[in-house]
Amino acid sequence: MNPFLCAIFLLGLSSLASAANFTQVFEWNNLDYEWPSDARRAQALENGTFKAENISPLYMAVYGSRLFLSLEKNIGIPVTLVSLPTNSASTAPPKLTPFPSFDMHGNGNCDKIEWARGLKVDSVGRLWMLDRGSDNCQSKIWTIDLINNDHTKLIHRFSFNDWIHDLVLEETPNGTFAYISRWYRTHIVVFSLERNQSWVVDTLGIQFYSIALPPKDQEPRQLYLGKFYSNELYSIPVAALHNGTLTANPKLIRKWTAIDSYSMLMDNHGTMYAAFWSKNYISSWNSSQPFEEQRFHEVAGLSSPWPFTFALDQSGNFWITVNDRSKMPRLRLLKAEVGVKSYIFEASPAFRSPPCFLFPSPDVTAADVTGQPSLIVRPPILNQQLTGVGLEIDSWATVGFVDSGIIFASPSKLIFGMLSTLNFKNLQELA
Ligand SMILES: *[C@@H]1O[C@H](CO)[C@@H](O)[C@H](O)[C@H]1NC(C)=O
Ligand SMILES: *[C@@H]1O[C@H](CO)[C@@H](O)[C@H](O)[C@H]1NC(C)=O
Ligand SMILES: *[C@@H]1O[C@H](CO)[C@@H](O)[C@H](O)[C@H]1NC(C)=O
Ligand SMILES: *[C@@H]1O[C@H](CO)[C@@H](O)[C@H](O)[C@H]1NC(C)=O
Ligand SMILES: *[C@@H]1O[C@H](CO)[C@@H](O)[C@H](O)[C@H]1NC(C)=O
Ligand SMILES: *[C@@H]1O[C@H](CO)[C@@H](O)[C@H](O)[C@H]1NC(C)=O
After folding, report:
1. Is there a contact between 3 and 352 (Cβ–Cβ < 8 Å)?
2. Ligand nearest 362 Cα, by number?
3. Residues 200, 164: contact at Cβ < 8 Å?
4. Pair 87, 26 in one domain
5. What tens digit of pLDDT does each residue of 221-264 get?
6. pLDDT value of residue 20
7. What is the per-residue pLDDT for 242?
8. Could you read off the pLDDT of 366-400 as tens digits, one per residue?
9. Same structural domain for residues 65 and 104?
10. Domain carrying residue 188
11. Are residues 341 and 402 in the same domain?
12. Which residues contact 294 (CB under 8 A, 6 or more apart)?
């Protein structure tokens, strides 16, 4: 299919993305783990090594039908990485399943998961997890192969412990790099998977907490970095980080309205999302445009220091946990179909056939993807576009593709456009 054609549907979708429509998947009044046995749970409650009320999500990743959360390491939190299903036949909220297993967790044991922090899934289905370590153990990185029996590997030990927050992954023809924020230190950390090496890049006195990477097609690709006690957003060109550069000169590029951005994320069309300490909203900014902060999602009455975790999955859903320390429900999981994916996935495959037919949007439905493909497109997507050139489709429009073009059909009109030159000016009314 002609890439341009798909671009039409994307135009329609992008206007929807800002009006993301979240639905609730689960809500929890009480959070608990799936314990290996009732006896262990009872004993842990009794000896104080488990305090359910202290369970509090930090970061999120989603892959396939599983969602992963890292948890704040409070008193009474024996496990800091859990999984839960993204849907369930029952509306009862699922228990948090220790991931990859209960016994892979252990504080003060350098070969176990001690304190999971930033999480990301790469393009081949590996969950990457930062582990803060402990007084006795250095910080480390784990990968868990989600499509290969959750095969778990401790891939790297850093030369430091503590002050390690979030990460982003960059997959280049020269290998995979992780960039890691370390607030309270005036550097970021670069890890090269192929070389199994990490090094620090000095940031000239600036400390960064949140970190985000735009999609591959942004040139030159920048690493975005946010701060605590500040509303400033900085960037560093990533090319300079590959080759062992030891000093970066972060450039101040924007200011959010709020201070303390603790978590940031970019989608594969270049929109950035950011959450802030004690703020009841997630902001967004379309990085292809001059800075304009928008409210992506807001929760009335939310009062919590670390109110949200969020992630995008591979099929175009935006996932959010809403963490409320002051009232029930304690935690809610929300989901919206936004039609964009994580920055790790190229946007361009969506422009190719056949994935073009698979847009997960309620407004574009694959009516028939076998044989002669056709789509049903609901106004106002087409309506908006077509009225601009004096055409109007006032009701459901069926769109069919023939060899050389596209046919839009509505109850009153049949309109043809050539694929090769398709723009909204050369559509012809056939009937
Ligand atoms: C972001 O801005 C670009 C350039 O103006 C535009 O093409 C794109 O549709 C916008 N994305 C969204 C999600 O609005
Ligand atoms: C959200 O979904 C509901 C139910 O499908 C619908 O009534 C409402 O118009 C949608 N809102 C937006 C902004 O899309
Ligand atoms: C508390 O109970 C748990 C569960 O059996 C056990 O693993 C842990 O070692 C106990 N800790 C202490 C300090 O007794
Ligand atoms: C990578 O380096 C770590 C030390 O940081 C070492 O423990 C591990 O064995 C190395 N992995 C490989 C595959 O060489
Ligand atoms: C890969 O490495 C080569 C040689 O160092 C360099 O010229 C090239 O720009 C690098 N490519 C990327 C995408 O970083
Ligand atoms: C690394 O790359 C940056 C930017 O591409 C360049 O300015 C710098 O000289 C390079 N350093 C080395 C050691 O090659």
Report:
1. yes
2. 2
3. no
4. yes
5. 999 999 999 999 999 999 889 877 899 999 999 999 999 999 99
6. 87
7. 86
8. 333 223 333 434 333 344 444 444 445 444 455 55
9. yes
10. 19-349
11. no
12. 18, 283, 284, 285
pLDDT at 353 exceeding the cut of 70: no
> Which of 304, 326, 349 is the endpoint of a domain?
349
Pocket of ligand 3 (CB under 6 A): 40, 43-44, 47, 49
Q: Does ligand 5 lie within 6 Å of residue 242's CB atom?
A: yes
Beta bridge partners of residue 170, listed in sequence order? 177
Question: Does the Cβ of 17 fall within 6 Å of ligand 1?
Answer: yes
pLDDT of residue 409: 58
Inter-CA distances, 211 with 142, 251, 346, 408, Å: 19, 14, 19, 43
- Integer Cα distance of 355 and 114 in angstroms: 40
CB 166 within 8 A of CB 211: yes
- Which ligand lies nearest to the CA atom of residue 40 in the structure? 3
